[in-house]
Amino acid sequence: MEQSFHHLLLITETLFQKKVVGQAAEMGLLPGQSKILDYLQEHDGCEQKALGQVFCLEAATVTGILQRMEQAGLVRRQVREGNRKSQYVYLTPSGREAAVQVRQLFSSCESSALEGLSPEQIRQLLGLLAQIYQNLTKEANH
Fold first, then answer.
1. End-to-end CA gap in the chain
2. Looking at the domain assignment, is residue 136 inside a domain?
3. In total, how many domains does the chain have?
4. In this structure, is residue 112 part of a structural domain?
5. What is the pLDDT along the chain (142 residues), one digit of tens a residue?
C-alpha cells in the first residue's frame, strides 16, 4: 500500500464513507443526510447556509439534500421574523429519532476505525487532523 499522505487520507475517507453511507442507507437515509441529522442534533434551528459552511458544500447541494429530507419528514425549513432572506432548519420528531440512530451509527463506525489505538493516540490523531484542516482552510481563504 502506498504510504503518501494524500493516498492514505483518500482511501481512509473513502472506506469510512462507504461504511457510513451503507449503514445509513439501511436506515433509509440518502448520502449526505446522516451528517446533516447529526449536526442538527446539536444545532437545531441553524441557518441553512451554515450547513454549507460546516460541511464545505455548495448552497445548491445543501438545498437538494434538505429538499429530500423535508419530503422524508426528517426536517422542516422556515424563515424567521426579521430575517426573511435566510431559511432555518429544524428537526422533526422523526428527524430527532433518526438523528439518535445516526449518532449511534457514527459512534460504531468510529470505534471500528479507531480500534487498537490508545486514548492518547486518538487525541493526537484528532489534533493533527484539526491542524491539517486549519492549514487547508487558511489556504482556501487566501
1. 34
2. no
3. 1
4. yes
5. 678 999 999 999 999 999 999 999 999 999 999 999 999 999 999 999 999 999 999 999 999 999 999 999 999 999 887 777 789 999 999 999 999 999 999 999 999 999 999 999 999 999 999 999 999 988 777 6
